[in-house]
Amino acid sequence: NIPDPLKLLDSPPPSKGSWKADCSAAIYAFHENDLRMNASTNSKMDKLNIYLSGLKTHHPLFNHVSCARDVMKVKAQVKLLAGDLHLNNTIGERNNTSTNCKFCQVVEDEPHVFGLSGCEVYKETRMKIIADIKTAALKCSPPLTICFEDDSKFIQFIADPSSFNLDHSHRVNLNNTEDCDRMFKVCRDYTFALLNIRRVKLKEISN
Hints:
The structure is a single chain. Helix 6 runs antiparallel to helix 8. This protein is mainly α. The longest helix has 30 residues, at 177-206. The protein has helices at residues 5-9, 16-40, 68-81, 88-95, 110-114, 123-139, 151-159, 177-206. It is elongated, with a radius of gyration of 22 Å.
């Protein structure tokens, strides 16, 4: 914090460098706290734990992107993490159109697409990649326990398997690079595959 002006008048003048550093830190802290407060009241950001790292640091999911294909996949995962997926529940509310799934006429939201009891259109791919997720989780040290019974917790894990919103036994250890690489990859694959199926199927029914 910047010292009280009266205290500054009674003290030796600070050097130009230290004063500049103090002012920069105070400005940064103000804007960081302001952004955190805004994010904490944004219901779309409930999966993103905003209190654990400074704004100058990037999210750990970006540490495990190594090729152009990964960039395409991580984009979908970022949208899921930030609550910015354009599913029919949000599109319908915004445009005053139907919020229902085009394939089964149930409200299309994140659990409907990514949850284990969601739309049948995604079932085959969902089950295939979930098998990969289970295998990867068992290879972690210690093995991860994934909550498949609760769609909300499962989707939180898919969005960010290292999230502190998850119980300790349900999240990957950020200090274990090998486990992080493994889990972020299968979670990216899951998100991207289901959204890709949605895109293809919507294109088919529109033709």
